[in-house]
């Protein structure tokens, strides 16, 4: 059951105890149209603000995020159950994105000059295109919004947000923080709307681009609807990222990073480590240490410092995860730890390791959005890479090896994903491109890449 109820209200629920938090009325259709029109009007002025002045506003948003760090972090944890310490880290990352964008945006987006073949002059401008509509998920309630909004504000665009219903409060708070930081009124607006209303937003003439972070199924749906309107999309979708442990890996480091990579954000991360492909020479040693470390994790209240793993964000999501585990076991997977729903209130699920994972099981083929690790045996590095690429997804992945040059060559030449992490696990970095290939979507966010996704790359040719 989604948190959007049939009586035209959204009810947010605390996943720690299953209790209702707040209710939010859906916008009327006329209000949605008014918000879009107001955003367009704000954009028509913002587009002419200089790059340096845009950067100052974005830097102020970063300061506003830091000033509201406590309230924002606590709200995120209450709405979707991430560890409070990780909510604080998320706010810090959002502020860092603002600072990076403010510092580098003017240089990334400045005009470029070319000398033409006939001796004439060419000028390339990165001009804003209009209102950008973002459909964002619940797992990183602030970061997902900041990631696309800040880049596009720097580019000169207006921003609309449809946030996941269970983190509506976070979306509203971000809107308030942006406004209080001095961003022009209506330039960033949070829409509280249904899926049907969202489809109408995509069709609105003022909306010039659509960006979605979500499942592959959602990406196909939104991509089709936006494509029918000839509107560009950026789609950051799901994955089942493979982390390869080679014979010469530092096993202590590999175990530590693989555990963190699987359970960070309660395992609810598109770029989380999900499939662990270990070569024969070190498989048994890795398995023993990995299972021991996963079993030792403490499940509980995400506001407490001693907790390692909080609840799944929604009850239906926990049911889906458990069903995937059960179907994998029914098709031959073996539970090495975890794998059962605990008694008590809240939507908790234990750290789980599955072995004997093979094609045809959800643990191999699909994305498991929670703290469930798929352990896969490979004969050698060549087979490990084949298994890693044997996926319809292609967001991220990892390699553990003391031979960094060899690991880098594997990453460059063979890994069919948008991001690869060597001797670490995937975290967002403001200066590095973020995005994937295959069913994990297309387009890039972060850095100059994200700032230039929704701009008109305009060529101006001046005769000799």
**What is the number of helices?**
15
Q: Give the strand line-up of the largest sheet.
A: 12-13-14-11-10-15-16
CATH topology of the largest domain: Aldehyde Dehydrogenase, Chain A, domain 1
Portion of residues within helices: 40-55%
In CATH, the homologous superfamily of the largest domain goes by the name Aldehyde Dehydrogenase, Chain A, domain 1
Q: Largest sheet, described in full?
A: 7 strands, mixed
User: What separation lies between the terminal Cα atoms?
Assistant: 65 Å
Number of strands: 18
Number of domains: 2
Work out the radius of gyration: 23 Å
What would the average pLDDT be, to the nearest integer? Answer: 97
Strand content: 15-25%
Please give the CATH class of the largest domain. Alpha Beta
Uncertain residue ranges: 1-6
Examine the secondary-structure arrangement and name the CATH architecture of the largest domain: 3-Layer(aba) Sandwich
Structural class: alpha/beta
Shape: globular
């Amino acid at each position: 059951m989604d948190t959007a109820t049939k009586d035209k209200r959204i009810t947010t629920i605390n996943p720690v105890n299953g209790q209702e938090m707040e209710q939010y009325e859906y916008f009327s259709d006329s209000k949605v149209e008014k918000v879009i029109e107001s955003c367009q009007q704000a954009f028509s002025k913002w587009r002419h603000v200089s790059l340096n002045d845009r950067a100052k506003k974005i830097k102020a948003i970063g300061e506003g995020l830091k000033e509201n760090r406590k309230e924002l972090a606590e709200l995120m944890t209450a709405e979707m159950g991430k560890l409070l310490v990780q909510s604080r880290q998320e706010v810090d990352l959002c502020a860092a994105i603002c600072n990076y964008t403010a510092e580098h945006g003017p240089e990334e987006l400045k005009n470029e000059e070319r000398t033409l073949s006939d001796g004439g002059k060419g000028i390339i401008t990165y001009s804003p295109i209009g209102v950008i509509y973002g459909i964002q998920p619940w797992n990183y309630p602030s970061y997902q919004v900041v990631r696309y909004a800040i880049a596009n504000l720097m580019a000169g665009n207006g921003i609309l947000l449809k946030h996941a219903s269970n983190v509506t409060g976070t979306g509203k708070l971000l809107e308030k923080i942006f406004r209080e930081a001095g961003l022009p009124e209506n330039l960033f607006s949070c829409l509280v709307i249904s899926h049907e209303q969202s489809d109408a937003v995509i069709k609105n003439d003022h909306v010039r681009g659509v960006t979605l972070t979500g499942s592959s199924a959602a990406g196909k749906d939104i991509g089709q609807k936006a494509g029918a309107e000839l509107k560009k999309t950026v789609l950051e979708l799901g994955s089942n990222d493979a982390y390869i442990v080679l014979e010469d890996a530092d096993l202590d480091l590999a175990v530590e990073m693989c555990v963190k990579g699987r359970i960070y954000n309660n395992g609810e991360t598109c770029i989380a480590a999900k499939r662990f492909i270990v070569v024969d020479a070190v498989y048994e040693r890795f398995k023993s240490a990995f299972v021991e470390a996963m079993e030792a994790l403490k499940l509980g209240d995400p506001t407490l410092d001693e907790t390692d793993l909080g609840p799944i964000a929604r009850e239906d999501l926990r049911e889906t995860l458990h069903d995937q585990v059960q179907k994998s076991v029914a098709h031959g997977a073996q539970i090495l730890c975890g794998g059962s729903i605990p008694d008590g209130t809240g939507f908790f699920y234990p750290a789980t390791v599955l072995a004997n994972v093979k094609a045809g099981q959800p643990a191999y083929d699909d994305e498991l959005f929670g703290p469930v690790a798929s352990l896969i045996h490979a004969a050698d590095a060549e087979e490990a890479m084949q298994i890693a690429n044997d996926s319809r997804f292609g967001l991220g992945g990892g390699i553990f090896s003391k031979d960094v040059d060899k690991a880098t060559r594997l990453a460059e030449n063979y890994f069919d994903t948008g991001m690869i992490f060597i001797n670490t696990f995937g975290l967002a970095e403001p200066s590095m491109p973020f995005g994937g290939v295959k069913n994990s979507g297309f387009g890039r966010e972060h850095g100059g890449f994200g700032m230039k996704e929704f701009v008109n790359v305009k060529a101006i040719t001046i005769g000799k």
